[in-house]
UniProtKB/TrEMBL annotation, chains A, B:
Organism superkingdom: Bacteria
Residue ranges, annotated region (Disordered): 1-34, 233-255
Record's compositionally biased regions (Basic residues): 243-255
Official protein name in the record: Transcriptional regulator TetR
Species for this entry: Acidomonas methanolica NBRC 104435
Length: 255, 255
DNA sequence: ATCACTAATGACCGGACGGTAACTAAAATG
DNA sequence: CATTTTAGTTACCGTCCGGTCATTAGTGAT
């Protein structure tokens, strides 16, 4: 059954000598490094589009190679996918971001604005957002670890800054409430959700992300003191009733 | 969620001949309505967990039937998936929510708090969130249409309310800026992102969602006026070309 | 020109997929 | 009871999947 029929010779021999028959007809032999680069880039784009259930044959077709050739470079599909994770997540986190956020010589508003502008510049992309969501749904550990990084390096530091700017006790005295951390997640979440609306749900979003970031940061910081007081009005006895607007709600914090 | 394992549906029957195999469930014959109900419920849970690429044989195994039997109720897999969409999205949108949001006899803060508490009660669920995200990645139109509904019935009305509460011109005079709509998306986005963190990335989130909603709404409304003024400072008076942020009542000065 | 090296490929495998057809048996009807 | 109806099953089809192996052909060194 294997190669029984000599009548095969299915490949048309006639135009064989002439090598310029069609644009990509011929076998292209690359340095392994170059080929691997092409495969990884192609895989990132491919899996971002169709998800990790996409077939290797389809990926190979896009790359202009056969799917078997992929196995020369990655022993299994899983290995290729792991490489895609590396490619997308490793090295895109800038430690300078953490430095910037911690630099109290700059106003918090400026720090947050600059950070989120830089952060969005790094992640507000088709590949990054979709692979991040695909991986999350699949339950890949790397996404959880990434979010724990965000929480430890961005969200919780921000929540601690709010303690300072609102004149509440330091977190050394009173640990962060889950609701305070959640509040800081709010800023992060609304900006990430913007990326999801754009790259997952294909909605129209404003072109000028810098303005969106600025507005979000301003609103966040302008609103945070009220929310912090609300959260802490039970834990400490500094009522500090605000005269403006509506009178202070008679009801305390539920539970 | 109907029943787990009702292997014996009222019929007590002596094992017939050779067919001992006690664990083997006998053929269970249900009314088509009941069976269809089981299939749909099972399909919602199944596809929410593994995504729409999950195999029908696996789904059938969970249901205790053979995969061929699914075709008796749904002509194709696609038809079953469409039914899942219906099941999850249709009828879960409450028109009372829109009425509540538009009721100006209630303070905006109360309206938003009540609405988002009710909204989260409806959508903050494993099935809903994950299927919504899976469907978005797949590019299913129903999710886009759903988000357009949210924008038209929740987000833009909220943005218009902000015009009123901040004393800015009505939207009849000055149409909503994209950045204003985006601002209103911010509140929605941070709460939806909370659901994504919980049900997609399996992170710990506060147990008391009511408090989270209340804090988010208070912060949103307290911060919105500053952000609105920022957005409209060019609209209302002379452009003031450069300089990011200066001639404004910067009430809150960090440090 | 040719040789060695090795990218790249063609052929193939077992299994899982969505889907079809024929058959089996549990309930409804008389 | 016998008969009819039809929910549910066994058996199977063509296709595609990840992965293996022997073979082919592009390229630098000689």
């Amino acid at each position: 059954m294997a190669d029984d029929n000599g009548s095969d010779a299915g490949v048309v021999r006639a135009p064989k000598g002439v090598r310029s028959a069609s644009p990509q007809r011929k076998r292209r032999r690359l340095d392994p490094e170059d080929r691997e680069r092409e495969i990884v880039d192609g895989a990132v784009a491919f899996f971002a589009e169709v998800g990790f259930d996409g077939g290797l044959r389809d990926l190979a077709k896009r790359l202009g190679i056969t799917h078997q050739n992929l196995f020369r470079y990655f022993p299994t599909k899983e290995a290729l996918i792991d490489r895609v994770y590396e490619e997308v997540y490793l090295g895109r986190w800038q430690v300078e971001w953490e430095v910037l956020l911690a630099d109290r010589t700059i106003a918090l508003e400026q720090r947050l604005t600059q950070f989120y502008r830089a952060y969005l510049q790094a992640i507000f992309r088709y590949d990054w957002v979709r692979i991040f969501v695909f991986a999350g749904l699949k339950g890949v550990g790397i996404t959880q670890r990434y979010l724990e990084l965000v929480q430890a390096r961005v969200v919780e530091p921000l929540a601690r800054e709010l303690r300072v700017t609102t004149g509440l006790p330091d977190t050394a005295e009173v640990p962060l409430l889950p609701e305070e951390t959640e509040m800081a997640w709010g800023l992060h979440g609304e900006l990430f959700y913007l990326a999801v609306r754009r790259w997952v749900y294909e909605m129209k979003v404003p072109d000028d992300l810098d303005t969106v970031v600025r507005v979000a940061v301003v609103r966040f910081l302008a609103g945070a003191p009220s929310a912090m007081r609300l959260l802490h009005e039970g834990t400490l006895r500094a009522p500090a009733p605000r005269s403006g607007r509506r009178a202070r709600p008679a009801r305390r914090n539920p539970r």
